[in-house]
């Protein structure tokens, strides 16, 4: 569990660092321009880390499933080697799927008003600035979303269905509550991540009439809110982390 939490923390930190240069540039020194190459690079890392976080959340759901449904086999199933392989597979999947996007965008000519709604670059917004047919980008972007966020969210839902089935078979009400309580932090992290991500994707693709302010707010919530709230949630709900935090600040 702590190894998966470390992966989640590193991914959140990476997402924050990717958006930091342009956010600080806009709000602190008024730098409102970004070059094409810099934009494509930022876009690659933002999407890559976002889909990596989706994979980490799926891995954490699997961790909770094994801990509750196969507790006697937990140590033999989730060995350090298996966890490293899961992490590497998640990273490779994200890089391979996102790697073509900057090159697909770079081949387009850009003209007219090149103003972004967000303080960072996203594929679904940058491609709309191109003066060319973006159908291939739109189809590939949808494929990436479905093959990562779509599949991951369904597998997480399926794992919790199995967890709930196992928990309901426990005779003691106190034991049922104790088992479910170990999943609360992860459920909160899943909702914090998937809700704004899916909402932002829907707005960009289908919500053309949505107010511009809604896009701006959803953009900030999508990338900045989960890294802010995840440490708070896990510090409150995980006794060992909470004790170490209290010890660090009180002694």
TrEMBL record:
Q: Where in the cell is it found?
A: Cell membrane; Membrane
Output the PANTHER family linked to this UniProt entry: OLFACTORY RECEPTOR 51G2, OLFACTORY RECEPTOR 56B1-RELATED
- Stated name of the protein: Olfactory receptor
Q: Where are the transmembrane segments?
A: 6-31, 43-62, 82-105, 153-171, 183-207, 213-234
Database matches in InterPro entries: GPCR_Rhodpsn (IPR000276), GPCR_Rhodpsn_7TM (IPR017452), Olfact_rcpt (IPR000725), OR51/52/56-like (IPR050402)
Residues spanning the signal sequence: 1-16
**CDD domains, per the entry:** 7tmA_OR51-like (cd15222)
Q: Which GO terms describe its molecular function?
A: G protein-coupled receptor activity; olfactory receptor activity
GO cellular component assignments: plasma membrane
Species for this entry = Pteropus vampyrus
Does the record bear Acyltransferase in its keywords? no
Keyword entries, A-Z? Cell membrane, G-protein coupled receptor, Membrane, Olfaction, Receptor, Sensory transduction, Signal, Transducer, Transmembrane, Transmembrane helix
Function per UniProt: Putative odorant or sperm cell receptor.
What kind of membrane protein is this, topologically? Multi-pass membrane protein
For biological process, the GO terms are: cellular response to lipid
Q: Does the keyword Hydrolase apply?
A: no
Domain of life of the native organism: Eukaryota
Which Pfam families has this protein been placed in?
7tm_4
Q: Where is the G-protein coupled receptors family 1 profile domain?
A: 1-234
Q: Known PROSITE patterns for this protein?
A: G_PROTEIN_RECEP_F1_1, G_PROTEIN_RECEP_F1_2
The UniProt family comment states:
Belongs to the G-protein coupled receptor 1 family.
């Amino acid at each position: 569990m702590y190894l998966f939490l470390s992966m989640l923390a590193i991914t959140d930190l990476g997402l924050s660092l990717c958006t930091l240069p342009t956010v600080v540039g806009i709000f602190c020194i008024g730098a409102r321009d970004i070059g094409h190459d810099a934009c494509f690079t930022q876009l690659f890392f933002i999407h890559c880390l976002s889909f990596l976080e989706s994979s980490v959340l799926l891995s954490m759901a699997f961790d909770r499933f094994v801990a509750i449904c196969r507790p006697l086999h937990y140590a033999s199933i989730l060995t350090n080697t298996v966890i490293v392989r899961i992490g590497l597979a998640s990273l490779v999947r994200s890089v391979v799927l996102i790697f073509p996007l900057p090159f697909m965008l770079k081949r387009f000519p850009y003209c007219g008003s090149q103003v972004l709604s967000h303080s960072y670059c996203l594929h679904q917004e940058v491609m709309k600035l191109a003066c060319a047919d973006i159908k291939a980008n739109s189809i590939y972007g949808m494929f990436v979303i479905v093959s990562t966020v779509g599949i991951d969210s369904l597998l997480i839902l399926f794992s919790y269905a199995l967890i709930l089935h196992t928990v309901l078979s426990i005779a003691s009400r106190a034991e049922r509550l104790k088992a479910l309580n170990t999943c609360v932090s992860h459920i909160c992290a899943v909702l914090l991540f998937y809700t704004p991500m899916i909402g932002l994707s829907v707005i960009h693709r289908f919500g053309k009439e949505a107010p511009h302010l809604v896009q701006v707010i959803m953009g900030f919530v999508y990338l900045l809110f989960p890294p802010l709230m995840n440490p708070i949630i896990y510090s409150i709900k995980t006794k060992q982390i909470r004790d170490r935090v209290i010890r660090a600040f009180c002694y």
